[in-house]
Amino acid sequence: MTDRWPVLVTRRLPQPAMDRIAERCDVTLHEGEDAMPRVDLLRDIAGKAGAVTLLTDRVDDELLDAAGDQLVIVANYAVGFDNIDVPALTARGVLASNTPEVLSETTADTAWALLMAAARRIPEGDRFLRSRTPWIWGPMMMLGQNVNGKVLGVVGFGRIGQAMARRAVGFGMRVIYFDVYRPSEEVERRYSAEYRDLEDLLAEADFVTLHTNLSPETHHLMNAERLSKMKPTAVLVNTSRGPVIDEAALADALRDGVIFGAGLDVFEKEPEVHPGLLELDNAVIIPHLGSATVETRNAMGMLAAANLIAALEGRRPPTLLNPEVWESRAQA
Ligand code: DGY
To answer: If 0-12 CB within 10 Å is exposed, 13-18 middle and 19+ buried, where does residue 322 land?
Structure first.
């Protein structure tokens, strides 16, 4: 008889992933569209061998205490893992995994859509027509900013940042980037991308797109001072994590014309959006849809399931966040 493992899944995933998990595990599932209430999470994690968590679930010492010693893996259904205290899992020998790569192109598509929408005022034009305001074509009507031929500034030149650079090539743009980790010269050559200090990038770029992790170093990376370094014609795009931008400072900068526009997929106090942003036509805002396509959410689900099941079966999960736990288990 094959082993089956008790696992917790904190929100319904795309069906192929649910089916894959159910083949090998007895699943406790939080039904409903809301985040799993903390009290339910603490109750239902008890005795589980694995958990599939979302970016709305905090995985910390309190949760690990509630889980007990059987917990082998927490498989996060996201590439970002700022909701997980990875060192706490590592200290207890619990594996942690995320879902990188499968969502890079889709997230870059979303960032590009926001960039275009903010530069060319697409949602504003759509709202205008729906308001049934009388109008006639005019030379000065709703002018935006050219995208073609401009300078793209990528902050965080990892997988998604590089996917943005690939798109920029097709628009005849020049690419500059900032990252604390310098990629190889081969990567720079591939996109003709030039390194800049962050401050220099902000002053030179026509479009600034953020692709960093959220960490104490990147919290409010874009504050009032840095926003003031950008060009008044520039657009800021964020598909990373909301707290990378000081949202109140951004609302002020957009209102006062410090920058031309912003395209935002993520928010500082998600799901809340700063009220200042809600009132501004030059803020294009969407509800954290970066990876939200049928294909990509399926791929994320299958990767989270693969991580979960591999760990439970004693195989190395494909995308581990704390490989040192795996190495020490293998040596034990
Ligand atoms: C992630 O994966 O980190 C996104 O924010 C959701 O796809």
So the answer is: buried
Cα(267)–Cα(4) distance, rounded to whole angstroms? 39
220 conformational bin, left if phi > 0, alpha if psi -120 to 50, beta if neither? left
Regarding whether 16 and 91 lie in a shared domain, the answer is yes
β-pairing verdict for 73-76 and 50-53? parallel
pLDDT value at residue 2: 66
Give 31-41 pLDDT, tens digit per residue: 988 999 999 99
Same domain, yes or no: 94 and 145:
no
Question: Residue 304: CB within 6 Å of ligand 1?
Answer: no
Cis before 271 (ω within 30)? yes
For residues 276 and 313, membership in a common domain is answered with: no
DSSP state of 231: -
241 Cα: distance to centroid of ligand 1 (angstroms): 9
Is the shortest distance between the CB of 242 and ligand 1 below 6 Å?
no
Q: Is the CB of 78 under 6 A from ligand 1?
A: yes
Same-domain status, 112 and 257: yes
Which CATH number characterizes residue 61's domain?
3.40.50.720
Range of the domain at 242: 104-285
136 and 112: one domain?
A: yes
pLDDT at 330: 80
Token pair 């104490």: residue = 216
Question: How many domains does the structure of the chain reveal?
Answer: 2
Task: Give the single-character DSSP code of 123.
Answer: H
Tell me what pLDDT residue 195 has: 98
Mean pLDDT value across the chain: 97
